[in-house]
Amino acid sequence: MKRSTRAIAVAAALALAATACNANDRTAPSGGNSAAAEQGGTIHLLSTSKDIHLDPAKSQNLGISTVHLIVRGLTSWKTSPDKATEVVPDMATDIGQASDAGKTWTYKLKPGLKYEDGSPIVAADVKYGIERSFAPELSGGLGYHKSLLVGGDKYTGPYKGQELASIETPDDSTIVFKLNKPFGDWPWIVSMPAFGPVPKKADSDPAHYDDKPVASGPYRVKTNDTGSKLVLDRNPNWDKATDEARTGLPDSIVFDMGLQPDVVNQRLIADAGDDKFAAATGTVIPPALIPSVTGNPAVKARVAKSPSGALQYLALNNKRPGLSNPEVRKAIEYAVDKQAVQVAVGGPEFGGELATTLITPGLDGYSKYDLYPASPQGDPDKAKSMLAAAGVSNLNLVLAATNTPVGLGVAQAIQQGLKRAGITVTIKPYESDPLFDLTTGPKGDYDMTVSTWLPDFPSALGNIQPLFASSEIGNGGYNQARYSNPAVDTAIQAATAEQDRSKAASAWGALDKQIMADAPVVPLIYARTAFLHGSKVQNFYLPSYPPYPNVLTLGLSK
User: What are the residues facing 76 on neighbouring strands?
Assistant: First the structure.
């Protein structure tokens, strides 16, 4: 969990740093799609990345991303412009049958599933694919299952003939998972790349399986020029009738890789030639190009904006002498000028909505509330009176900040807001890796830091457990507030085990308010992302979660 959540948090932070502006209405996302998507054609996806991991064991793709065009899972994600993202059956007949109080999960494969060569997909292939993800030589993928499967903490993969006994395949269509604790969100876990089927006979060279994995989804790899171009064409043995997550509309998909962010967006603004059939799926609109977008109605109509996104927050180190008193932390809740932070990330049109909760909009468990109501600029007088009542004066704090223009701008906005409440803040800039090591390491030698967080799957668990469980303090964990509350830890365990989705959402919502009553962090912004697409690209929208386009449903108009 720590490794994978770090990756998505860093990715979200980079997206935020490259974005500017937001819109405060919470209506369906814009995107300019006015024509119907049709079968056929070639879509071009413009990418700044030079690496696209297609090996399910190595991939950190979310459930609506590249690898899932090629590789299916037991479950998948169904997104909508105006509804919450759902977990739906993919290769499995349902999202899972739980037993043993949520510690055992059983799946049945749909009949007739085939690989690109026409051979059948069987349960043993899913088991083998998962086992590969434990091999040290195939590290880097999303790994939530590794800490949940019985024996996963000691298992090192199948390449020395060992199997993971907690994954059982009693027949070709049945797969059973034995967990070491009840886990209600297991249906989301089995949507992750590592749960894609891998036939053992195709894995003779694991180091190069990344180049051309065996396709179970609607597309297969035609050519793969690493770092420059990836071309996918149709998998003739994919059956749309078995797949409710993918449309499989284009005949081919071309990834143009290794491009500069400005180049991606300038090409989409121009909307010429093949770029009419192109889209940016991982490159947000840079601040410098926003005038070119907003100043041209035809271009602005081709912008898709997310209704919400990652949570940006100010973590207050609860272990530090100046911040160990919850009354001081509550005073800071009132002192922060959130509007100045919003301006620093680009303003109210594209950048982010002011945040007051830990669970972000679009996830089950979110409810709008504000335990520390103040104007958008904060309430410095109230903060001063609270500090005085706590017997605190001349408070001096160090803010560890990301050494980027946006990161420093946010830090300065916080510094100025706290100054009005009589709190002196010294900004100490760090590059991203040293900052991560500082705030997740054992010493915790900092007072405050600004962070951005996006869960790897749409569950409020991802907003609460990694950031506030005592087990996530230090050792690479992301509890940067160093917050520890035994009652909260117990409640997190109970919510994690809950299988009833409605009850789980209620439990996570209650935890949101319980934690905020201790004021370990200051929610700042629900960061919004914005992406451009060409005039012929359809079904291009950003759901409530995640704040990225769903590449599994894109199509083209003539």
Answer: 88
Task: State whether residue 487 is helix, strand or coil.
Answer: helix
Structure confidence by residue, pLDDT tens digits, 150-190? 999 999 999 999 999 999 999 999 999 999 999 999 999 99
How would DSSP label each residue in 302-349?
TEEE-SS-PEEEEEE-TTSTTTSSHHHHHHHHHH--HHHHHHHTT-TT
Tokens in use for 513? 């308010």
Residue 464 host element (H or E): helix 461-468
Find out whether 179 and 104 touch, Cβ atoms under 8 Å. Answer: yes
Burial zone of 2 (CB within 10 Å; 0-12 exposed, 13-18 middle, 19+ buried): middle
* Helix pair 461-468, 501-516: axis angle to 10 deg: 40
HSE at residue 128, side-chain half, CA atoms within 13 A, is 18
Q: What is the pLDDT of residues 200-241, one digit of tens each?
A: 999 999 999 999 999 999 999 999 998 899 999 999 999 999
The CA distances from residue 288 to 19, 283, 409, in Å, are 10, 14, 16
Name beta bridge partners: 107.
Answer: 175
Q: What are the φ and ψ backbone dihedral angles of 81, each rounded to 5 degrees? A: -65, -25
